[in-house]
Hints:
The protein is of the alpha/beta class.
Amino acid sequence: MRTPLVVANWKMHGTCAEARTLALGVREGLQGVEGVEVVLCPPFTALAAVGGVLAGSRLGLGAQDAHWEAAGAFTGAVSPAMLVELGCRVVILGHSERRQHFGERDEMINQKVRAALAHGLTPILCVGEREEERERGATFAVVETQLRGGLAGLGAAEVARVVLAYEPVWAIGTGRNATPEQAVEVHAFLRGLLGEAASKEVAQAARILYGGSVKPDNVGPLIAEPEIDGGLVGGASLRAPEFAAIVRTVGAAGGGRP
């Protein structure tokens, strides 16, 4: 059974004080919610502050990126070891904004995935196509290249520790989202690729999230699909009531996917 997962990606938003307030609002808004795992991923500067708010709760702490080395002369970078020390258990890797704005390629993302696993972190590997790639029918080719590149060289046991997130780039921050049918088609394809990369058992147990303008009013039809195991939430996660509503909807859909 796959426990649904909802991850809040706060991106480059929030001072420590603002992040602390938001985290407290989420914690209070999710009291009594069961059947879903929740992780908050604030900016690096707010990790300690948010970790303090989440201490003793069922909410997890995650980061938005990590370097592939444990230490070294990499000005401005943050290592997996540093994240673990702060209490992180999850890290988002290969987000489309990292690919687009910072030039990250599959080889680099693969190094990060390997480093995260080596430090006991759960990588959330993001894949997704741009609008022009979807329009020319290249969606499957794009996500397959990204998935195989991100998981290159990993054994089945390592692949089993990775969470996937399908985030169509044309839906991120645009107010548009993939229809349940569009999302399920790609999720099922990715699960099939995981079966080839590891095993059918690993593929069946893997959690694949949807990301792309997830909101309280569209998450219901998405999470109703058994192939969709939760959400990677951007803008809506910056407002505690909206994010709590998303999590509650996911939790109400039933704990554990077949």
